[in-house]
């Protein structure tokens, strides 16, 4: 519920890109919660697919919104 409340706050005050990333993360968390557990050996492929850091794009959107984006 806290995650849903946070995303709802972003809906009120955030920019569209930040909201889209927040909703994407919320969907991924929900999907992971109901998905079967993954074997440890499968984690080696996550880095190649960019799945190891699912918050990276959300963090970039937040920094952009705050005017902290790098060059």
From TrEMBL:
It comes from the Bacteria. This is Uncharacterized protein. The lineage of its organism: Bacteria, Pseudomonadati, Pseudomonadota, Alphaproteobacteria, Acetobacterales.
């Amino acid at each position: 519920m806290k995650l849903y409340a946070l995303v709802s706050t972003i809906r009120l005050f955030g920019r569209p890109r930040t909201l889209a990333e927040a909703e994407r993360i919320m969907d991924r968390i929900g999907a992971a919660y109901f998905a079967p557990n993954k074997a440890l050996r499968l984690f080696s492929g996550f880095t190649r697919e960019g799945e190891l850091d699912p918050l990276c794009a959300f963090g970039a959107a937040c920094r952009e919104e705050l005017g902290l984006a790098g060059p």
